[in-house]
Amino acid sequence: MRVTPFSILALLLFCTVLFSACDNSSGSDDDFVEAPTERQFIWEAMNYWYFWQNSVPVLADNREFFEGNDRTYHEYLNSFESPQLLFQDVQNASFDDFSFFIEDYNELNKALKGAGNSFGFEFGLVRFNNNDDGVFGFVQYVLPGSPADNAGLERGDLFLAIDNIFLTVTNFSFLLSQPTYNLTMGVFSDNNTIAVSEERISVTAVPFEENPIFLSTVIERENVRIGYLMYNSFRLSSHNDLNQAFGQFAAQNIDELIIDVRYNSGGTLVTSALIASMVSGLGTQDKFGELAFNSKRAAANNSSVFFLNTVPLYNDNDERIGEVGMNTLNLDRVYIITGQGSASASETLINGLTPYIDAQNIGVQTIGKDEGSFVLYDAPVPFTNKDDADQSHTFAIQPIILSIVNSLGMGYPTGLPADFAIDELDFLDNLGELGDVNEPLLAATIARIEGQQPVAKASNRPPIGTLIFSSAELKPTNQRIYILPEQINFIDQ
Questions:
Q1: Directed axis angle between helix 269-280 and helix 239-251, to 10°?
Q2: Distance (Å, rounded) from C-alpha 99 to C-alpha 109?
Q3: C-alpha closest to that of 349 among 268, 238, 243, 247
Q4: Is the predicted pLDDT of residue 297 greater than 60, yes or no?
Q5: How far apart are CA 12 and CA 6, in angstroms?
Q6: Is-above-0.85 flag for pTM?
Q7: Could you please report the per-residue DSSP string of 106-136?
Q8: CB atoms inside a 10 Å sphere around CB 222
Q9: Contact 395/37 with Cβ under 8 angstroms?
Q10: Nearest CA to 255 among 219, 302, 205?
Q11: Is residue 312 scored above 90 in pLDDT?
């Protein structure tokens, strides 16, 4: 064949194009970046456990959303500025208000045990009805011996500013993040407003552990003896203390029981079943509720939760260390005081008892959290073993992984209504002392026990505002029922 300059040029062009094509096909991944392991873990764990997995397209099995393309999958995971934003994107926005991302699971574990820095008081923030932006705080309770107690804060105290900056709907989150609160106090005025007081109180957060049993006492009335338990967090480590409190109630032959969970926003499911068992005397032959997982996990994990015959004991690491005999009251009625933050394990306590005894809700309608979760780590499937977690980071997730109903199949997605409605916000000018028979919510409950007409409002004055935030929302148990993975087998007896 005769070779001409044109044929040589054509051959060169053909080889160039061929080489380029071959290079593109074999080198198409030159700019491919595999997603970090913590991002892959988020997708894989959510695909495995998430309660609404089958309704989130991006979590489709076999990565079908990405058409099985690893490059597309990793590009998706890398497209978010942070793992937290990725976690938010793989949730069901229509139903899920409670799954959350964990920056440091070591700090979470400390907080779940009640450890960590604390000011030693809980509070609510109220938005003035006649002011679009103005907010004030009121002290719900103060822990004995805490910085707040030492500084002189008391239940019912009002505050309007932190560090001389008045609270508003836009700045309170920032102001509440400070390690020291320099509080500008307030006082009620005659025209249903709050005036600035000359008093200033400063408190600094220090390591301080809260006992979830705030108060346990017996109230002697003329014709009835009433046990009163104020319980502020469903915590595994409190089981022995709870059993002792119920033992004292039994020893004093109480006729009625009031459990106050107005500031209790959640905790462990086993603790909820334990308290229900001590109240009712029901045991492992009686079903407390049913757990339902997603369609992939249902066959292996759907289970029944039973009342308990003994008290399971846990150490500070939430490890089960044994059991003791249970003190029970065998009551056919219990009164439960609720507040605007009562949720999760508090609701499960009421709902689980309802098929068996008269569980009366005195307060307000509860939040409506009939779902549960546990912490998932960047560890091998099933992502539940912290000891096997990737040590290069401390991220974890706690997604909703199950729904909870009682033995009659009843949940509470919109909350549990009050049998007698009474709102603490209607008594802000005179909250009273917790445990005192004149404290408004306790007084109303006692009146109901004694067959009298409770007082639902302090006066005819209009409410001064609307609750927009509670410090309970800063707790890791806020509006959550959580279980330890090993407890799935424990409660399925």
A1: 10
A2: 17
A3: 268
A4: yes
A5: 10
A6: yes
A7: HHHHHHHTT-SEE-SEEEEEEEETT-SSBEE
A8: 5
A9: no
A10: 219
A11: yes
Give the pairing type, strands 333-337 and 256-260. parallel
Percent of all residues in the chain with a pLDDT value above 90, rounded to a whole number:
69
Q: Which two tokens stand for residue 344?
A: 């999760």
Rg (CA), the chain: 28
pLDDT tens for each residue of 143-183: 999 999 999 999 999 999 999 999 999 999 999 989 999 99
Give the number of other Cβ atoms within 10 Å of residue 387's Cβ. Answer: 6
Chain-centre distance for alpha carbon 396: 16
Helices (H), 27-170: 37-49, 70-78, 83-89, 105-112, 147-151
What's the CA gap between 33 and 45, in Å, rounded?
21
Which residues 6+ apart lie within 8 Å of 354 measured at CB? 406, 408, 410
* Environment class of 198 (CB within 10 Å of its CB; exposed 0-12, middle 13-18, buried 19+): exposed
Burial per residue of 397-410, b for 16 or more beta-carbon CB atoms within 10 angstroms, e otherwise: bbbbbbbbbbbeee
What is the Cα 107 distance to its own chain's centre? 16
pLDDT confidence of residue 457: 82
Q: What is the DSSP string of 246-274?
A: HHHHHHTT-SEEEEE-TT--EEEHHHHHH
Q: Distance (Å, rounded) from C-alpha 292 to C-alpha 42?
A: 22
Distance CA 249, CA 327 (A): 9
Distances (CA, A) of 425 to 13, 154, 416, 467: 82, 17, 19, 8
Is-contact 465 138, C-beta < 8 A? no
How many angstroms separate the CA atoms of 104 and 108, rounded? 6
**Would you call 352 helix, strand, or coil by DSSP?**
helix
CA 117 to CA 143: how far, in whole Å? 13
Residue type present at position 166: F
CB burial class (10 A; 0-12, 13-18, 19+) of residue 177?
exposed
Residue tagged 């008045």 (tokens): 166
Greatest Cα pair distance, the chain, in angstroms, is 123
Alpha carbons 63 and 482: distance in angstroms, whole number = 29
Contacts of 406 (CB under 8 A, 6+ apart): 288, 289, 290, 351, 352, 354, 355
Tokens of 5: 């300059």
